[in-house]
Amino acid sequence: MNKIKIGFFSVSHRSPSGDDRPYLEWHQMDHMPEQYLLPGLLFGQRWASTPACRAARAAEVGSWADVAHVVCYLIGNPVDETVDEFLTLGRTLAEQGRFSQSLPSQFLAALRLLDAQAAPRALIADDVVPFRPHKGVYVIVEEPTDSAGQDHYLQQVHTEILPTLVAVPGVAGALTFGTTPAIRRPTFTPGVFRITTCYLDDDPATVAARLQEPLERIWKDAPVRPLLAAPFESMMTWDWDRFGPAPS
Fold first, then answer.
1. Cis peptide before 78 (omega within 30 of 0)
2. Is the pTM of the predicted complex or chain greater than 0.85?
3. Nearest to 7 by CA among 176, 123, 120
4. For residue 5, which of 80, 113, 81 has the smallest C-alpha distance?
5. Domain spanning 6-237 has what CATH number?
6. Are the CB atoms for 243 and 21 separated by under 8 Å?
7. Is residue 190 over pLDDT 90?
8. What does the domain layout of the chain look like in residue ranges?
9. What span, in angstroms and rounded, lies between the C-alpha atoms of 59 and 49?
């Protein structure tokens, strides 16, 4: 059994000021480390879009086109206690004057882990894919459109879709998460979503080009609507200047 039970996703746009550096420094040096106080917090990661990544997107619908940052906290047991304490910790830090910064939010919710698969070439267990060093992720956000076809599609995720994705050069493994009624909170983005994170050990924009055709085949007649399919670079501590003001 995978000890990862939940992916808590925070997906956001760029700062209205155009300079994301202050937020990124605060989040990595202050906010993210505090999450490891939580009983079930296993790992926290964040990724950012670069101009090359943005140009390589396969899908971006509506305000999802403005997404620039993705954070995922991997959570294990005790799930409910950890999710509740996660939300409480944010309020506690705000009361201490340590949650004064934010970016415009696109999506915030905890999703259940549905599947995990490693690329055979990676020679690692499926369960440890996120912990393997990677250069970035390819994030696929889907919205179900036909409830009658979801069971079959989820079976395809396991038997066909994830095997197809991890066979693409540069994809070391992939995890799929989905909305579950067992984990709902008033602050979560409403709706039903599935998010797949492909972990990359090659340049994210380069891998994105390789994923374009397989994704088009996967989505053909699929009972889902792709909202976002985009590469993001791993965010390295002390490297915030790379994600500062956009070039004029």
1. yes
2. yes
3. 176
4. 113
5. 3.30.70.100
6. yes
7. yes
8. 6-237
9. 14
